[in-house]
User: Fold this.
Amino acid sequence: MDITYRLEQKRRVLGDFPGPKSLELAARRAASVAKGVASSVPVYVADADGGVIHDVDGNSFIDLGSGIAVTTVGASDAAVVGAVKEQVEHFTHTCFMVSPYEGYVAVAEKLNRLTPGEHEKRTVLFNSGAEAVENAVKIARVATGRDAVVAFDHAYHGRTNLTMGLTAKAMPYKHGFGPFAGEIYRAPMSYPFREENPQITGKEAAERAILLIQKQIGADQVAAIIIEPIQGEGGFIVPADGFLPRIAEFAKENGIVFIADEVQSGFCRTGEWFAVQHEGVVPDLITTAKGIAGGMPLSAVTGRAELLDAVHGGGLGGTYGGNPVACAAALAAIETMDSQDLRGRAREIEATVKRRLGALRDELGADSIVGDLRGRGAMLAIEFVKKGSATTTKEPDADATKKIAEYCLKEGVIILTCGTYGNVIRLLPPLVISDELLADGLDVLEAAIRANS
Ligand code: PLZ
Assistant:
């Protein structure tokens, strides 16, 4: 990496926070913003660059969350900032459905080239991950003439009505928000750490899901199977080797559209452009968002030309989909990923984190709260269990997980939790984080784990 940071890449907490300016903003927020939107940290942002977030009171936090896997190239990457400024001076919007522009076409060309598979592809752009997922399902239904959609246990696909239905976890995502869309079915996931039979292979776990599909839905009724190659909100669950390839093969054998939801795992995050590439899986459709545009809202569905082109003219779209400023940002962000070899950087981060946390786990012993250490690239997680249960009942410890995240925050490190049982800490640093800053963040995390062990 050869990166010049605009802000000093140092952690700095000035005594107790939130400071006065954050408190004032919190008061204004309480009186004006809907309570249903929650924030993980109590401070308000003034600036962000590389691996740091500065708050309005002068604190500097190490960012190990990237705004939920979005700021892969940092929150103010010079190339992205330049491209946005340039575009914004010309036009902010025309609506691609009214008067089209090159940026949209260029992003589509890029995505068609970067996504796995040598087949002819097409792309359509949207704003959010949920919107991409919802449109992938629309495309699969038109292309197959079928209705049913299969999602997995622990899945997260968004908060719109259809994507809530695809999402597994009730609280907070679905609770009270029904009724949900019909023809959504849930299949068992491969979750190596929590398998009843720890010997089960990825292929066997896939056969378990396939049997359910065949018996409870009927393969010929299924339009699409949608899966996150590494599950995000559900707990950074990496399925056993062989699971994804067998599911993809089953989809192919039965004319089912295989959709890889790479909204969180895509764009260098796992050390490849897309997480499916670790097992050589070629999805029919792939949904992307988050890391794609350096923080600007943009999402996409990319896939087989015959599927996307099965939709009637005018059937896909939206006022802002593929906004020109977001497209300019995406082209610049992808350029940065390439020129800085951020795939390689993700693999370096994986090696560092796994070495350090692996050593900590060995030191704490087999019955410590560190139940599982997993993930790929810079999409890494620790699953915490009640002390003494790691090799037996694996009882989730959401309380310790929360305390560890709070300890980190207090020391100036922003760390996100996730998981169906709320007992997973996930690490999603910007890939442009410096070695020194990452090491400092890991020192704090290790101290937090020790303090709660
Ligand atoms: N698919 C795999 O991870 C978004 C949102 C968390 P949107 N995940 C983070 C929250 O609490 O809202 C996500 C994802 C996967 C789809 C989505 C949805 O993307 O851009 O948030 O709509």
Q: What stands out?
A: The chain is about 35% helix and 15% strand. The pocket of PLZ is lined by residues 68, 128-130, 133, 156-159, 228, 232-233, 261, 263-264, 289 (CB under 6 Å).
